[in-house]
Automatic annotation (TrEMBL):
Keywords: Cell projection, Cilium, Cytoplasm, Cytoskeleton, Flagellum, Repeat. This is EF-hand domain-containing protein 1. SUPFAM superfamilies: EF-hand (SSF47473). Gene3D superfamilies: 2.30.29.170, EF-hand. InterPro entries: DM10_dom, EF-hand-dom_pair, EF_hand_dom, EFHC1/EFHC2/EFHB. It holds the Pfam family DM10_dom. Transmembrane segments: none annotated. The gene is EFHC1. It is found in: Cytoplasm, Cytoskeleton, Flagellum axoneme; Cytoplasm, Cytoskeleton, Microtubule organizing center, Centrosome; Cytoplasm, Cytoskeleton, Spindle pole. GO terms for molecular function: alpha-tubulin binding; calcium ion binding. GO terms for biological process: cerebral cortex cell migration; cilium-dependent cell motility; mitotic cytokinesis; mitotic spindle organization; regulation of cell division. Its main location: cytoplasm. GO terms for cellular component: axonemal microtubule; centrosome; mitotic spindle; spindle pole. It comes from Pongo abelii (Sumatran orangutan).
Amino acid sequence: MVSNPVHGLPFLPGTSFKDSTKTAFHRSQTLGYRNGYAIVRRPTVGIGGDRLQFNQLSQAELDELASKAPVLTYGQPKQAPPADFIPAHVAFDKKVLKFDAYFQEDVPMSTEEQYRIRQVNIYYYLEDDSMSVIEPVVENSGIPQGKLIKRQRLAKNDRGDHYHWKDLNRGINITIYGKTFHVVDCDQFTQVFLESQGIELNPPEKMALDPYTELRKQPLRKYVTPSDFDQLKQFLTFDKQVLRFYAIWDDTDSMYGECRTYIIHYYLMDDTVEIREVHERNDGRDPFPLLMNRQRMPKVLVENAKNFPQCVLEISDQEVLEWYTAKDFIVGKSLTMLGRTFFIYDCDPFTRRYYKEKFGITNLPRIDVSKQELPPVKQELPPYNGFGLVEDSAQNCFALIPKAPKKDVIKMLVNDNKVLRYLAVLESPIPEDKDRKFVFSYFLATDMISIFEPPVRNSGIIGGKYLGRTKVVKPYSTVDNPIYYGPSDFFIGAVIEVFGHRFIILDTDEYVLKYMESNAAQYSPEALASIQNHVRKREAPAPESESKQTEKDPGVQELEALIDTIQKQLKDHSCKDNIHEAFQIYDKEASGYVDRDMFFKICESLNVPVDDSLVKEVTCKRLLLPAFTFPNPVWIPLCGL
């Protein structure tokens, strides 16, 4: 064997040696197989089997060198770079906490079990704090099982907080969507993870078992029917003899329950019972003739026969202490069969004769079980709540969608634009309220009242609308049956109480007297006489002293002169009637007053030549004089009407 002639020569930079005797130039394999799968492997030698000119380090050594911080020989040492951030979906990928739990479910419609225990697995996914509840599938359980709650974040309270792995432990109850789960144990990974996070785990508990499932695991009993079962004599004696009873089953206490009628047949030949349902025309039920097929009915079972599989095997005398017999079916008594309580209220004549001959019972009267109809409940309106009018509130009780109360259309058409105006003062112990005057407007079309307070300069009280159109209730009237003020309640000296404020009527306009005289039947003689006497006193000539005093009053004389000047300007104007209608339209409260801007707007729309300086002067004079000194409303003398 010839040795390599260049082996051992120094391999220095700039120098190279070529082996002239080398004949193998093959490359090492980088593909291998392990357990039948192709894997990549790192070559260990170079071409022709030569040694590779680099260090063969393992992956662990390479990772250590990559994470190792270099140490400087001189200068300040640099701080090591921070650790790389690893997101939760990477750090906790495929890491799931598993808890074993169970919950109790009531079984209301079963005679064999009152509740059942359902075992579940609660999974907590650390990557996104989501949870899921899965019930292991039990074969032939008859219950939909599998995924009870799909994977999602579950709320633990009403504030919107979600369950966290810190809230989970062994031996606790957690409520999810109204169901309470009791956690009994967890797997090894969950225990190690929670203990590593500083959570002290409770000791594990035993899983609760379902009593019905455990009962089914017990071995079946062997039932032997006795061979000495002979009823030939009873069959030959009572063949075709049947006792007939009429009974009802009252199930009105349960939801959607009703009282139904049945016929119970008792066959004397073999002591069997049959229950038939009585159908009526158009009762909405399927015409099944039999509720219970003909069979012997047990009355008292032995203690160990409560779990007897009745749906598979017939009950024999070994499991029954007492059977139902003919003496148990008595008119006027109740008996329970197959979980239903039947009340017997009548029987046929053959049954009455049989009980008289066999048991000596002669008194079997028919019991009236027809339910008497309850007397109709008188519908009464609820008490008035104080919002709006009583008529408006009562509409909420007549229809689901309230409608406006019906109005007297004829009365509204006859009394349209008919308003009774009165001057009143406020009865108040406050000195500032003694000089306040109010104009009451009674609308005959709707029986509503509005109150307007004429503004007085430098009085310290803002005038204007005091009360909008509304019906005013008389004092001492009941809330359910209110009595409203009418036209007959307004006369000179009358006291009108409006929502706790008392007003005294002092004066009226001429239209009120005309209306009262034309409708004298509505008013008392005293009220009519008070208005007539007041009007006569107002129209009577004033004494000389008062006339002289009036002549001496320069304010009144100046105001009369200004009104005469304006009336002369509007005397020959063609739209005299239109002015009156326009002011009535814009004076919605019928107070007799409009503001200054509205006054000029109306005059401008009708092309009425009104001097601004004259109107300002008239307004100033009018505000300095007391109310009702001149005809009311104010805009009537200004327009010359």
